[in-house]
């Protein structure tokens, strides 16, 4: 029962972390910088 609760909690945490990528462990800073660079070349 504890294993199921832990698995469910981890799954929810991963889903929330992927939903808000700028706040959690999964970061997309390099992708953000790439978008800024592309926008700068459009001017």
Describe the model.
The chain is mostly helical and 43 residues long. The protein has one domain. 74% of the residues lie in helices and 0% in strands. The chain is rod-shaped. It starts with a helix and ends with a helix.
- What does the main sheet amount to? none
User: Mean of the pLDDT scores?
Assistant: 87
- Tell me the number of helical segments per DSSP (H or I, 4 or more residues long): 2
Radius of gyration: 17 Å
Instruction: Give the DSSP E fraction (strand runs of 2 or more residues).
Output: under 5%
Which features characterize this protein?
mainly alpha; 0% strand; rod-shaped
Give a short overview.
The chain is an all-alpha fold and 43 residues long. The chain is built from 2 helices and no strands.
Please describe the topology of this protein.
Blueprint: H1 2-19, H2 29-42
């Amino acid at each position: 029962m504890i294993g199921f609760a832990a698995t469910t909690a981890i799954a929810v945490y991963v889903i929330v972390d992927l939903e808000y990528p700028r706040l959690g462990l999964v970061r997309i800073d390099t992708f953000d910088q790439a978008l800024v660079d592309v926008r700068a070349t459009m001017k």
